């Protein structure tokens, strides 16, 4: 980085933003297999937060790849850069006082740890959307498992690419016997209990 680039202090402080917005912002990092319910539940959580007057923004994997990360592919190097940029954007949103919800498979512990380390203590909430592979495959909302089983998609997480389940997620959501709303409420309760919502 150029030595002449210096970090500017803002005239409006982080604490002042939190007081204005009545929330302690954090990144809700949803991780889970394709079709586990990350996007669906993240959207439901965002709706609940909005209705409580809370400020949030959902960073969706596909949308990010259309814009900010459109120059990146799926090589190991590009996947790392994809997550790094998302982490940096999430950090800016949190600094601005907003909750950030992200819905990426993010299969590797190391990548999730990297984002956690970018943020302050308590600002990274790992949400494990835990749905058995068989059920994800049965739901197959985008028809991707079918294609992966037919060999039309290579390196598909859960089929021929590893998913490392979080060992100690901050929130563990087992979706199999729950409705979308029950899953979303579980997450919002956590935010209330841990003092994220003021
Ligand atoms: P992902 O973002 O993890 O790839 P999606 O949210 O796109 O997954 O798809 C999950 C699918 O499972 C949706 O069609 C959703 O309606 C369905 N579904 C059924 N039950 C649940 C539940 N309890 N939680 C989340 N999704 C569920």
Automatic annotation (TrEMBL):
Q: Which reaction does it catalyse?
A: adenosine 5'-phosphosulfate + ATP = 3'-phosphoadenylyl sulfate + ADP + H(+)
Residues holding ATP: 32-39
Which GO BP terms, alphabetically?
hydrogen sulfide biosynthetic process; sulfate assimilation
APS kinase domain span = 25-174
A Pfam family (short name) is APS_kinase
- GO MF term (any one): ATP binding
Q: What residues sit in the active site?
A: 106 (phosphoserine intermediate)
Keyword terms:
ATP-binding, Kinase, Nucleotide-binding, Phosphoprotein, Transferase
* Enzyme class label: transferase
**UniProt KW Ribosomal protein keyword:** no
InterPro entries per the UniProt record, alphabetical: APS, APS_kinase_dom, P-loop_NTPase
Q: In which pathway does it act?
A: Sulfur metabolism; hydrogen sulfide biosynthesis; sulfite from sulfate: step 2/3
E.C. numbers: 2.7.1.25
Would you identify the family this protein belongs to, as annotated? Belongs to the APS kinase family.
Q: What does this protein do?
A: Catalyzes the synthesis of activated sulfate.
The record's listing under PANTHER family reads:
ADENYLYL-SULFATE KINASE 1, CHLOROPLASTIC, BIFUNCTIONAL 3'-PHOSPHOADENOSINE 5'-PHOSPHOSULFATE SYNTHASE
Q: What is this protein called?
A: Adenylyl-sulfate kinase
- Give the organism, scientific name: Photobacterium marinum
**Native organism taxonomy:** Bacteria, Pseudomonadati, Pseudomonadota, Gammaproteobacteria, Vibrionales
């Amino acid at each position: 980085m150029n030595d002449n680039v210096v970090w500017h202090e803002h005239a409006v402080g982080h604490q002042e933003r939190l007081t204005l917005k009545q929330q302690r912002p954090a990144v809700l990092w949803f991780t889970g297999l394709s079709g586990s319910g990350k996007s669906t539940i993240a959207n439901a959580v965002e709706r609940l937060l909005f209705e409580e007057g809370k400020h949030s923004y959902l960073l969706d994997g596909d949308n990010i790849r259309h814009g900010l990360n459109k120059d990146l592919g799926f090589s190991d190097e590009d996947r790392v850069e994809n997550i790094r940029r998302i982490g940096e954007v999430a950090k800016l949103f949190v600094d601005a006082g907003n909750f950030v919800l992200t819905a990426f498979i993010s299969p590797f512990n190391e990548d999730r740890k990297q984002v956690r380390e970018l943020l302050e203590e308590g600002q990274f909430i790992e949400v494990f959307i835990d749905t058995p592979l068989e059920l994800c495959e049965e739901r197959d909302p985008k028809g991707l498992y079918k294609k992966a089983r037919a060999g039309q998609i290579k390196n598909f997480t859960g089929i021929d690419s590893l998913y490392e389940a979080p060992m100690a997620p901050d929130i563990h959501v087992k979706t199999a016997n729950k409705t979308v709303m029950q899953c979303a409420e579980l997450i919002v309760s956590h935010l209330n209990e841990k003092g994220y919502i003021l």
